[in-house]
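To close the chapter, one final illustration. This time we ask the reader to focus less on the individual chains and more on the assembly as a whole: which components sit near each other, and how the overall shape emerges from the parts.
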Amino acid sequence: MPPQRQTKQLQAIRNAFKESRGPLSIDELHTLARDSIDSLGLRTVYRIVRRLQEEGEIASVQVPGKSDRYELASVASSHHHHFHCTACDRYFDIQGCPGGLEKLVPNGFTLEDHDLTLSGLCASCA
Amino acid sequence: MPPQRQTKQLQAIRNAFKESRGPLSIDELHTLARDSIDSLGLRTVYRIVRRLQEEGEIASVQVPGKSDRYELASVASSHHHHFHCTACDRYFDIQGCPGGLEKLVPNGFTLEDHDLTLSGLCASCA
DNA sequence: TCTTTATTGACAATATATTGCCAGTAGTAT
DNA sequence: ATACTACTGGCAATATATTGTCAATAAAGA
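The assembled structure is written out below.
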């Protein structure tokens, strides 16, 4: 792996992650990072996201029905869930976790993980 | 809308839904219904699924990361969640629902719905 | 049984998301 | 400042999922 250069494209995408309150899609990253670099190509977003993922700086997030999103590994490592605003279509991190999931599991099944997505309106849209 | 003919393809797909313990993907429906009709084309599965959906007999289900699945509307109408077996990749309905989700919602947000997917091993794979 | 026509299934065509390619650009070290 | 080469971005190419087309088939009713 060659040395990582500090390009402004990379910085813009790193910054988008840092400022975000939730996981971002490729298109959202593209839009956000374009605020500082309007020539930014989608191809570059894909490339940087993949590289950051391989280096363990970000992690992918699956949400129902949509394509993958990404969030900082530091955020991903602490268990949390997401809130989907049905109006602006953004995702937000939420802390905490409902308890008592074991009792929902059918007999003979083994629970290893879970994934919760709340939905409704975010503060800006409500 | 022309009259609905009772073809064996339609019956096979209806039957797959009836026998299933969880939401099915297009490919799963194709595979299952092929047990009775080995000439069944994927095109036909898409067509029948869409029609059943338009007629309100089935509903689509979104699960994280995967493409849409479908389940009987009668099942969909009663609130429930899903268990994803990471070994065989099938989905199972689970009854019940964790409480206290309101307290997870950030200030100013409005909670309208939620979606929970448990994961682990099903009874056959455990 | 015969006729009508909805349905089927193979294949091509399309939509969408992601990646390969490559000439030009721009970090980085000397 | 210069050289080296990783990086960028436009476009083509690919992968995958879904749909259009149409001749052949098979329900349903006369």
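Chain B has one domain: 8-120. The mean pLDDT of chain B is 96. With these observations in hand, you are ready for the problems at the end of the chapter.
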